[in-house]
């Protein structure tokens, strides 16, 4: 009688594949949790900034699957440093390249952008 240990009758190759996939999923969850915690412990900052560029990234949408779009905007602050932050579709649509205003963020989390005249 053959025994494959913990995985019962599953061949070792499939067991290894399962462990690798499960490891990636766990790593991703831990990484997102750490970023969420870091953002929560970061100060909320409001700084003058300029919208440099905008981009979107669409995933899925082939066949019967639904599409999901992520929206990103790159801001440049007075020191010349640039940061790319993820925004909602509504926030993304309200911004135009070269807009000037006050950017409020916490870590890597976008909070708001108030355009100045």
Report on the architecture of this protein.
A five-stranded antiparallel sheet has the order 3-2-1-4-5. It has two helices and five strands. The protein is elongated and about 70 Å long. The chain is α+β, with helices and mostly antiparallel strands and 117 residues long.
- Give the second-level CATH assignment, the architecture of the largest domain: Beta Barrel
Could you name the CATH class of the largest domain? Mainly Beta
* Average pLDDT reading: 89
Helices and strands, in order, run as: HEEEHEE
Poorly predicted runs of 5 or more residues:
none
Strand order in space, largest sheet: 3-2-1-4-5
**Number of spatially distinct domains:** 2
Helix run count: 2
Beta-strand content estimate: 35-45%
Described by strand count, sense and barrel closure, the largest sheet is: 5 strands, antiparallel
Distance between the termini: 79 Å
User: What is the SS-derived class?
Assistant: alpha+beta
Over all CA atoms, what is the radius of gyration? 21 Å
Q: Based on CA inertia axes, which overall geometry fits?
A: elongated
> Regarding quaternary structure, how should these chains be classified?
single chain
What is the third-level CATH name, the topology of the largest domain? Answer: OB fold (Dihydrolipoamide Acetyltransferase, E2P)
In which range does the helix fraction lie? 25-40%
Number of strands: 5
Transmembrane segments: 6-30
Region (Disordered): 45-65
InterPro entries: DUF2500
Keywords: Membrane, Transmembrane, Transmembrane helix
């Amino acid at each position: 009688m053959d025994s494959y240990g913990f995985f019962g009758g599953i061949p070792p190759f499939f067991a290894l594949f399962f462990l690798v996939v499960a490891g990636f999923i766990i790593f991703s969850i831990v990484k997102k949790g750490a970023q969420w915690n870091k953002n929560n412990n970061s100060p909320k900052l409001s700084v003058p900034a300029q919208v440099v560029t905008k981009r979107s990234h669409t995933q899925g949408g082939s066949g019967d699957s639904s599409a999901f779009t992520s929206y990103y905007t790159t801001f440049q602050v007075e020191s010349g440093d640039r940061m790319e932050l993820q925004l909602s579709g509504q926030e993304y649509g309200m911004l135009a390249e070269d807009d000037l205003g006050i950017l409020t963020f916490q870590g890597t989390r976008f909070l708001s952008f108030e355009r100045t005249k």
